[in-house]
Amino acid sequence: MQVFIQPFSNEEGLQEWGIIELQGDLDSKESGSLAGKLVGDLFYNKDGIPTFIIGHHILVGKAEKLEKPLAVLEKRHIQTKGKDDKTEYVVRAIVKRKLCFRDRPKPIVGSMQKVVNKTP
Amino acid sequence: MPAVTVLDEMEVDMTFENESSSEGMKSGRSAEEIEDIVVTAKLDRLDLQPVSQEILFDPKFSTTEFRLIQLDKDILHSIEAGDVLVFRGDENDAAVLCTDKETYEIKEAETTNSLLLFKDLRMPDVKSPTGSTSSSKSPGSSANTSLNASELNDSTSQDENVNPTPSVKSRMIIDVAHSYLEMKRMRPNMSKIRRLLRGSEYDGKTDMEGRQQESSVTLNMLLDKIPASKDEIMKYLDEIRAIDISGSLRLVDGDYLFRILSQVLNCVDENSWSLTQIEKNVVVQTLSCLVQPFFLEKMFEWFFKPLPIEEPGTSSSALKYTYQEDAVCRFFGETLLKSMGKFNLREFLKVWQESVPEGLIVGLNQLNGIAVCDEECSPPVIWHYPEYNLPETFTDRLGLLFETKVRWKLTEISPFIEVFSPPSQNVGNLLTKYARSTTVNGVKYYFSKHGK
């Protein structure tokens, strides 16, 4: 069996995408799809140190160059007449840098109520 | 409604408030909200870069399937050059990734961390040790390719003494990954090709029996079934002298090959050509009533090589050929060895030397991977022992090798196990791990870990 990885499209060129690495998982308070939901806010200070605020938590991390870059492959199903669907991948981008948040998040003291809940 | 955050000892699951499900996320944060967050989190506004990024899940999140793959330098170059890559292998094989030239082992690496993937995440400007930002030197040609022009302005304006207005950009998480693929260059195992081609031997008749026609093997079929790159497959087909007859790949019958090579050598004798004066065209013409011309061309590819043209302007038909010494000697050596069991080594070397065309010199290194010598018994012996007939798993093969002969020099055993050694490593490394060694009179020998 052969599954092809097609090169990036010439119109877009080979893009560079980014990654945020977090300890653990992100969960939404509400069930259902995560699509479209707000997670938090990301700030950089003047030294380039990232601070990520998620709900009541504050995470301080750092920007890192990946030791080996990652390619982002998107899976596609190609329909072929009379045959089984074929799968192929397309190179969408290269990731060379990431923001890494390795430490446990610290709680923000004081109420975030005002901030995170929009008044209707 | 307070946010609920789940914390446990080992992992941290962060729960975020969802405030935008009813209104859609397009509205985004207002400047006031950002200021509130900055104040509540006790961040120093003066120390922050003016542009913050709000992180959301993409509206199309989880409708697309992405895979992350960690790249070696060579593969990165292939990808940057726009090459097509391919995952290859049967259901029973471990998947491999191939460029045109090379094969890589693929393994999935899992991580307990979450990797949030963004198309347009802005990275902080990297400051050089002197403190000046890299982008301030030449913003236009900055290595930071993910920045577009307006963001560049945002990020460079921090160096000026004006206090720019804080603003916020939306960034979409398009995927969350918990694993990625890792790759390692490997030497593919090709023995399956020989197995697939068995029974198709060409002996001068281009018509195949009906049964064989159905099971005929094509290059496309091999690309589908063999976990190796195209170049490596082609090179192996060449090594085992597979020929392409109207799209079907076939091995050549050993006896037939011997007969035709003998006829070519007779032709060389009859013309009294010296070692470097062999004329291919004459050979092809002379033998064309007995042998298909395409096969004679193949014979010249396998056993002869053209000499450089001395006078410029000479047409290619006037090319002179000489022998590929190792290929001719190896073929005659193997033919002799196949005909019987164990040979007295000294006698074999004599008969072998006599069998090859005059001017060629035989040597045991020409039989790498097809013969074994035992020089410790009396008299020393040699026998046919082709690598392609050995077990395909490493431990089985090593076991059999040590049964065949108790101790081996590195150069003796290498041809039989090098297929299992990663390309960047020495075969000796494999043996250090899976065998024991001893040094006798300055020569290192390897023997079984489980033996006496």
From TrEMBL, chain A:
<comment type="similarity">
    <text>Belongs to the CTF8 family.</text>
</comment>
<protein>
    <recommendedName>
        <fullName>Chromosome transmission fidelity protein 8</fullName>
    </recommendedName>
</protein>
<keyword id="KW-0539">Nucleus</keyword>
<keyword id="KW-0235">DNA replication</keyword>
<dbReference type="InterPro" id="IPR018607">
    <property type="entry name" value="Ctf8"/>
</dbReference>
<keyword id="KW-0238">DNA-binding</keyword>
<dbReference type="Pfam" id="PF09696">
    <property type="entry name" value="Ctf8"/>
</dbReference>
<keyword id="KW-0131">Cell cycle</keyword>
TrEMBL record, chain B:
<dbReference type="Pfam" id="PF09724">
    <property type="entry name" value="Dcc1"/>
</dbReference>
<comment type="similarity">
    <text>Belongs to the DCC1 family.</text>
</comment>
<feature type="compositionally biased region" description="Polar residues">
    <location>
        <begin position="143"/>
        <end position="168"/>
    </location>
</feature>
<dbReference type="InterPro" id="IPR019128">
    <property type="entry name" value="Dcc1"/>
</dbReference>
<keyword id="KW-0235">DNA replication</keyword>
<protein>
    <recommendedName>
        <fullName>Sister chromatid cohesion protein DCC1</fullName>
    </recommendedName>
</protein>
<feature type="compositionally biased region" description="Low complexity">
    <location>
        <begin position="127"/>
        <end position="142"/>
    </location>
</feature>
<feature type="region of interest" description="Disordered">
    <location>
        <begin position="126"/>
        <end position="168"/>
    </location>
</feature>
